[in-house]
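Z., the sequence and structure:
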Amino acid sequence: MGTDFVMQNTLFDAPEDAASTPLKKSSKIVEPATANPELIALAQTLPPHLRLGASSWNYPGWAGLVWDGEYPETNLSRYGLNAYAKHPLFRTVSVDRGFYRPLNVAQFAEYASQVDQDFRFVVKAPSLITDALIRDESGRGMRPNAHFLNAAEAVQMFVEPALEGLGHRLGALVFQISPLPNTWFTRMPELINRLHHLLKAIPDFRHTAPDGVVAVEVRDPQWLTPQFVNALRDTGATYCMGLHAKMPSINEQLPILRALWPGPLVCRWNLNPLHGAYGYEDAQQAYSPYDKMMDPDVETRTTLAKVISGTANAGQNVYVTLSNKAEGSAPLSVIELAKAIHASPMGT
């Protein structure tokens, strides 16, 4: 996996004065941090089919890691993507914003205009399609969602705008199915049939987005059945490995990917299991402003690196995005994962 070289860990830590970086004036221009030569060298050793990135890019705490200083969050959200994409290791990003409200063609096209030709996007489907419940602002389910897994609406509301706006920069369309009400677990065959119908309705878009893939992420292990695998295989979709406390470990999810082999790998490293299945707010409180590696998860990283290496070196596309809530700082997690991939054996 490329030439050997020595990298000093200190080069990958957040600058000591990052927290004291003065706030940038309001501007439509966000400048990237100066690229570290060691990161450039590391990036050049990684497989060409591999794309690593973060979940979104609007974090002022990444000053010195991704940005040349601290910018307001609103400026980063609107204008920071171009600077984000200049990070040597960032070749993808998860657009989670569309989960809360569907994005239109113009919004996707604006994102595409801010990155180079080789960049690819991982895009989450709207919760209106992937959540069985309509929820209030606190996340509490209020009533059943009549749009849940509606095939026609999924294509019209999500697939078509993303494809038209992103074009060949489309990497993965992720249908992240929210946790189901417990009473629905007796209906799994029915729900998988509905999911199968939705996936079947998605047109073949390889002529527009040759690297594009449809992936399904779930938050309940009850989905992981032979019927689920058959639905993915029959439609050319893949499984999005979700690293989250509500789901089994990587090794326990791997049989799904092996059943779909050969094929791409889509993985979203969402939350450190230390915080439990519902620990997003706890992780946010513990890790903000996301400028330090707080809870390194070496076991997950090492296992994931091996899976990535085996998949990418077999010529398959790999999309892996990491949340700040995985270890404390997504940019630092990406660096450590890249180092682990570089050191990993080529098989899985």
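The domain at 9-343 is CATH 3.20.20.410 (TIM Barrel). The chain has one domain: 9-343.

Let me know what you think.
H.
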